[in-house]
Every structure is written in C-alpha cells, then in structure tokens.
Amino acid sequence: MLTDAARCSVVAALRQPARTARIARAVWIAWAFIVWNVVFDHTIVTAGRAYIRAATRAAAKGHAGAPAVRMDDWMRPAATRGLWIATTAGGAVLVTGLLSVRLAVRASAPKPDR
Question: Which of 15, 24, 40, 61 could form an SS bridge with 86, CB 3.0 to 4.6 Å?
C-alpha cells in the first residue's frame, strides 16, 4: 500500500500537463486501434453471415446446373470494404482525439502577461 506521501507524489506527477497530454494521446491511439478492429471484424462477420445465407439458399434449390456460391466472391470484397470503413472510423477517432488533446493543452497553457 502506498503511503500518503507516495500517493501525493504519484498524483502530483500525473497532474503535470506534459505527462497528462502524453497519457491522453496514448489512450486516444489505443481507442482508435480498438475501433478499427471492431469495425473491421463486424464487416467480415456480416459478410460471412450473408455468404452462409446465400449458400444455404443455393443448396436448398438443389439445381445441378446452378453455379455454386463461392466464398471468395463474398469475402474478398468484404475484406476490402472492411479495410476502408475501419480505416475511416479509426482515423476519425484518432484525429478527433489528437485534436482534442492539442486544444486542451493550448487552453490550459499559461497565458503570457501583456
């Protein structure tokens, strides 16, 4: 357990504007990475489910001359689409976060006396 003096020094160190800004930037970068992964995964899962529905419908029809539903025809476009959508979403989070940190640092900076 931290003593009161050690706890105060840790809190004081975290209140330094430069260190706080660095921590905030790291959190926003991590958040953008998480958003990218979630959006990309959602796109791939959605395409996989659509493929399974299409393959099930094609198998239920049972026509011997009907072309088979190929997974590649569904998943390649989904991977490309997911890459673009996820990059846009993650980039938006990253830009918003880093600009917000920059504005917050500027707003908290000491103003020079005139």
Answer: 40
